[in-house]
Write a structure and sequence with these properties.
By secondary structure, the protein is an alpha+beta fold. It has 2 domains: 57-202, Jelly Rolls (Sandwich), CATH 2.60.120; 245-447, no CATH class. Helices cover 39% and strands 20% of the residues. The strands form 4 sheets. The protein has a 6-stranded mixed sheet with strand order 7-6-3-10-5-8. A hairpin with a 5-residue loop joins strand 6 and strand 7. Helix 9 packs across helix 11 and helix 10 (407-422) packs antiparallel against helix 11.
């Protein structure tokens, strides 16, 4: 049995709402900037590595066939595109390969002209052409007879090619509603061809540059908001230290871990309120979604600060600690314990009067080298346990995937059912839920670089 270890905190200092809003907005802007940067890098990569020798982005060659007289694809609609933009849309290439002894025709024309030509003709319209693995086409068969004239004799094609072997059609995109058609050159039925599509665009680098510029501008705005928010925030009073209480006679002494999560059963509890607490807590979860976005961004900032200085910036530490406190209070009320009917406050502060508290002692120094490995490598054993506790583990069996609901969630439901029918919360289940939650938040603090001490493998303090 371990000694009781109370957590002591520095006096609470509340940051203003304005600083919190600046931090959240700055963090969201940072995520947007990272997205813009990733998009620009992706376009540069595609433009420089994914083109063929002729400069086209191409699909794989796939087999298309129909017992009818023609295959059509009516899906190129640029009738509302301004002319100055149409000129920059690029060139489409369709490459078809006929079976030996066959001659194929491939053409593109305005949709209305193709409809008139194929009226009463048996053909198949390709409505879905999916080149993702596996390749898939969805078609609509249209019954009818043979065309009145072979396709080559029709004079409405904007571009066309015909012959044996491989035929390559190139078509600069133009305004209008267009259809692509593949037929036998003589208009006979049973059309079959190996088809490859390609597109040549010359504006990807320009878009990539625009994305890079936007990423820099948004990133500068993000940095300004983060710096202003962190500097304006006076902090939320992170733990100054955790002092152990005197052990009982004959009891082994365990070192106090610098992450202290506590909760008390706030009885009497409503029998049925727990059924809707998750709904009542939705406003908290909406706010927490934004706060956790800021938490992730600021943890990345703290990573570099620790790597170069060996210190966790105090203002960032206090904000992240506030997010953990807010999360624990909201979860304890609604989904991880349901041990109180008191609605949690919208606060990053310690709120010592609330029946769920969390404190993390601020570290004066942190290891520069340990920061490189503790979040992803050293934490693996604990992350496995946390997955079992929280339900972030998924098991696959045959074609089924089973999502484990989490030990904490299961115990909370059991406690809620007992409360509903017996009017009392089982004390043993409460202690187990709080112990599992204590384990989870210790691991979160460790992974978030807030402490270097390895989390203990225990549920108690």
């Amino acid at each position: 049995m371990s000694a009781t270890i109370p957590a002591t905190s520095a006096p609470a200092r509340r940051g203003g709402l304005g600083s919190t809003i600046l931090i959240v907005l700055g963090s969201l802007a940072a995520l947007i900037a990272l997205g813009l940067l990733a998009g620009g890098i992706g376009l540069v990569w595609a433009d420089t590595t994914q083109r063929d020798a002729d400069g086209y982005f191409t699909t794989q060659e796939e087999r298309l066939s129909t017992p009818a007289h023609a295959l059509t694809h009516e899906g190129v609609h640029v009738s509302r595109t301004p002319d100055w933009l149409v000129e920059r849309l690029g060139t489409i290439r369709v490459r078809v390969t006929a079976d030996p002894g066959r001659q194929l025709f491939v053409g593109v024309a305005e949709e209305a002209s193709v409809d008139r030509y194929l009226r009463g003709v048996g053909h198949e319209e390709v409505v879905v052409l999916q080149y993702d693995s596996p390749f898939r086409t969805d078609t609509i068969p249209i019954t009818g007879g043979a065309p009145a004239t072979p396709p080559l004799e029709a004079g409405f094609w904007a571009a066309s090619e015909s012959g044996s072997g491989t035929q390559t059609l190139t078509w600069p995109v133009a305004s209008g509603d267009w259809s692509f058609v593949v037929m036998n050159a003589d208009g006979s039925p049973a059309v079959a061809a190996d088809v490859q599509l390609g597109v040549d665009v010359d504006w990807l680098l320009a878009i990539a540059i625009a994305l890079f510029v936007a990423a820099v501008l948004v990133g500068l705005g993000s940095a300004a908001m983060l710096v202003a928010g962190v500097r304006r925030s006076p902090g939320e009073g992170g733990g100054a230290g955790i002092a152990p209480a005197a052990p009982l006679a004959g009891e082994p002494v365990e070192a106090a871990y610098p992450v202290a999560l506590e909760a008390r059963l706030d009885e009497p509890l409503s029998r049925g309120l727990w059924l809707v607490k998750w709904f009542l807590a939705i406003p908290h979860f909406v706010v927490l979604a934004f706060l956790w976005a800021a938490f992730i961004v600021l943890t990345l900032v703290a990573f570099f600060a620790i790597l170069f200085t060996g210190r966790y910036p105090r203002s960032i530490f206090d904000f992240n600690l506030g997010v953990l406190r807010w999360t624990w209070r909201a979860c304890f009320y609604s989904v991880s314990g349901i041990g109180t009917d008191r609605y949690p406050p919208f606060s990053l502060g310690p709120e010592p009067d609330y029946p769920a508290t969390l404190d993390v002692a601020y570290p004066q120094r942190l290891s520069r080298g340990l920061v490189l490995v503790k979040s992803w490598l050293l934490a693996i054993p604990h992350l496995i346990v946390v997955a079992i506790f929280t339900g972030s583990a998924t098991w696959a069996w045959a074609d089924w995937q089973v999502q484990w609901p989490g030990l904490i969630g299961l115990l909370t439901v059991v406690a809620g059912v007992v409360l509903l029918f017996r009017g009392g919360y089982p004390r043993e289940i409460f202690e187990l839920v709080v112990g599992c939650s204590r384990w989870v938040y210790r691991v979160i603090a460790y992974v978030a670089l807030m402490r270097d001490e390895y989390p203990p493998f225990r549920l108690g303090r």
